[in-house]
Amino acid sequence: MNQCDYCGNELKPGAKFCTQCGKKVEPKKVSKKKLDKKIRTVVNKTNEELFMNINNNIRLNNSQTKIVKRFSFLAFVCGLILILAMADLDSFHIHPAVTFVSIFLMLVFIAIAYMFRSREKKLQTLITGENLIAHWTLTNDEKYQYSNYLYQKEKAENLSKWILLSILFLVVFGITILIIEEAKLAIFFIMTGFICFFAFIAFIMPVYYRNKNMRADGEILIGQKFAYVNGYFHNWDFPLSGLKKAKIIKEPFRGLLIHYFYTDRTFVNQEMLYIPANSEIDLDFIVQNLQQHSKKT
User: Fold this and answer.
1) C-alpha span between 297 and 287 (Å, rounded)
2) C-alpha span between 57 and 66 (Å, rounded)
3) Does residue 52 fall inside a structural domain?
4) pTM of the model
5) Are 122 and 165 members of one domain?
6) Could you tell me how many helices (H) and strands (E) the chain has, helices first?
7) What domain range includes position 124?
8) Can the peptide bond before residue 276 be classed as cis, meaning omega within 30 degrees of 0?
């Protein structure tokens, strides 16, 4: 409500003179500080509304939250066992070995929960749209192409590994059979068991992951340094890690290739994400954004 600065009379909107004292109504000056604050408020409100609109369109549960809760619960259970052991109750005696194992497991579970808590926050910035570059959902046909490509690739890799392991077992156990003649049959069965076990892993696991990929949500979220691809979260924002290449691909399907690397106790590892995309997705825009953010780091 506007009032006259001289007599305090209520003024109508847009009035140039006071109807009671006749004085001219001077326009109120807004300080630059207040104006900047008002602009920032409007911008922040607009950004919040934008993120909320994006979040309303992305129907995705944070897959890392369940992992954090599970390991936090396991750490709590180990902590509870430790407390009971320290209380030294007569009716509930805990062996010192169990106490030692509980301490070790509690520290491990806390570390894992903390690590996945960090991943949970990063994935949430994609879901809310804060660090999101692009989002789309795979069709059933695209999901089939994607799952089948990963299946064929993993099956070929596992087959070559299984052949090498089988040759290694044949050489090692064959020499052992020649040296220890009285245990030929036992060594032969052990060798056969190892070969069959690794064959099971090599040929069954690709089928399992193909079925898992087919049942996944099909959501694709591409961020500045993160990506959520059909149920799996990837990030390349930690030390000695980064984006190596991002480009448009036409084979084995039209889509996006994200090639990133990361460093851990096994030195430098590389991951290549082949992501299907339909013709409506502006892949040039996505590639440019990924490359720009990669150069800044």
Assistant:
1) 16
2) 22
3) no
4) 0.70
5) no
6) 6, 7
7) 63-130
8) no
